[in-house]
């Protein structure tokens, strides 16, 4: 029995090497002899093994950092944590999260009047017998025009609870998908010199973006977003500005591109620090 079969559960898919647990002191060689761990030399990973590592193995990635919207040129390279930007893409989880958020956003104020709520006479509209017509007891019946509605919609709360891990995995799948599609952009500073919306309009026309969402995390502002950026995006229907605390799948998936500021990227890993797997 080979060492790889014994230690399969400790095989690291990214590094391509066997990682023995600290509690193990011996291992079984190919010839069946029991040898100490100190005498084992792991095989060197070959290029063929490295090519078989899947893209969602969880390795950290890198992305270019652009200066600003007015000066959209790369200035540095920022590391992207693999636990967030290199996870398994699960469209089913993203769909469940979108349905959950859409249900929670429903106001549920629809209302119809029953026969007890509509206005109308309290007397019997015609005698019970003798007219040859149908028997009617009130003009407020649902059978009459301007009568009440039977089993109509009433105000209702459509919100329900969803698992927190499922919501986080949906966000990870969406961020990984945006990165793999080349629609994730890192900007050093998302603030604008003025509140003129022409800066964003020019940026959209220059780069042929249909729409984009901006995630910012400023510490010198109460809302976490620059005032000039929020005022300019108000007059640009293609832009959606969100602080880091309000980042969600529903708003991001509706936009074609995603822009994350450098401060938000540095703090985004704290939202997923308790996660330990890539699926």
What are its keywords?
279 residues, Ribosomal Protein L4, Chain: A, 3 domains, 6-stranded mixed sheet, 9 helices, elongated, disordered N terminus, Ribosomal_uL4_dom_sf, structural constituent of ribosome, ribonucleoprotein, Ribosomal_uL4, Ribosomal_uL4-like
Describe the 3D structure.
- InterPro entries: Ribosomal_uL4, Ribosomal_uL4-like, Ribosomal_uL4_dom_sf.
- Probably binds the 23S rRNA.
- Belongs to the universal ribosomal protein uL4 family.
- The protein has 279 residues and is α/β, with parallel strands linked by helices.
- The chain has three domains: 3-51, no CATH class; 61-107 and 160-272, Ribosomal Protein L4, Chain: A; 112-152, no CATH class.
- The chain is 27% helix and 15% strand.
- It is built from nine helices and ten strands.
- A hairpin with a 7-residue loop joins strand 5 and strand 6 (74-80).
- Helix 4 crosses helix 5 (164-180).
- Residues 1-24 and 47-53 have low confidence and may be disordered.
Count of individual domains = 3
Percent helix range? 25-40%
The spatial strand order of the largest sheet comes to 6-5-7-10-8-9
Question: How would you name the CATH homologous superfamily of the largest domain?
Answer: Ribosomal protein L4/L1
CATH class call of the largest domain: Alpha Beta
Structural class: alpha/beta
CATH topology of the largest domain: Ribosomal Protein L4, Chain: A
Count of individual helical segments:
9
Question: What is the averaged pLDDT score?
Answer: 82
